[in-house]
Amino acid sequence: QVQLVESGGGLVQAGGSLRLSCAASGRSFSSYAITWFRQAPGKEREFVASISWTGGSNVYADSVKGRFTISRDNAKNTVYLQMNSLKPEDTAVYYCAAKRGLARAAISNGDGMDYWGKGTLVTVSS
Predict the structure, then answer these.
(1) What is the pLDDT along the chain (126 residues), one digit of tens a residue?
(2) How far is CA 91 from CA 18, 46, 60, 63, 122, in A?
(3) Integer CA distances (angstroms), 16 to 6, 88, 94, 96, in order
C-alpha cells in the first residue's frame, strides 16, 4: 500500500517557476514508477510526466517537454516536478499516481493507476 501526498502548488505569474512534491509513505515506494497528471477545469485528465523506479528514465508530454523536469529521491520517498517557464495553460490540479507492478516510466491516461494523491492546485496568471 502506498499513500501519496502532493504539495507545492500555488499562484504564479506566467514565466515563473514552481516545484511540486509527491511524498509517499509505504515501504515499496522505491519500486514504483511515479506519474504526474493534471486536470484543468472542464477538461480531461492529462498526462504530464513519468519517472522510473530508479529515476534513470523519464518521459514527458510534448506540452511540457523542455520546461518541466521530473526527478525522485528514494531516500526521501519523494518525487519532484520542477516547472519552469509556466504558461496560463498549465493551470490545473496536479496529481501524482502509481500503479502496482509498474516500475518503468510510461505515458498513461491514468486508467488503471492504483494509488493517487489528492492533488495540488497550480494557477498561472497571464
Answers:
(1) 889 999 999 999 999 999 999 999 987 778 899 999 999 999 999 999 999 999 999 999 999 999 999 999 999 999 999 999 999 999 999 999 999 889 999 999 999 899 999 999 999 999
(2) 12, 12, 17, 13, 5
(3) 19, 10, 17, 21
For residue 64, the one-letter residue type is: V
Q: How far apart are CA 19 and CA 121, in angstroms?
A: 12
* Among the listed residues 40, 22, 16, 18, the one whose alpha carbon sits nearest the alpha carbon of residue 96: 22
How many Å separate Cα 107 from the centre of its chain? 12
Alpha-carbon Rg for the chain in angstroms: 13
Phi, psi of 88 (to 5 degrees): -55, -30
59, 100, 76: which is closest to 24 by C-alpha?
A: 76
Alpha-carbon distance values, 96 to 10, 116, 125 (Å): 16, 6, 23
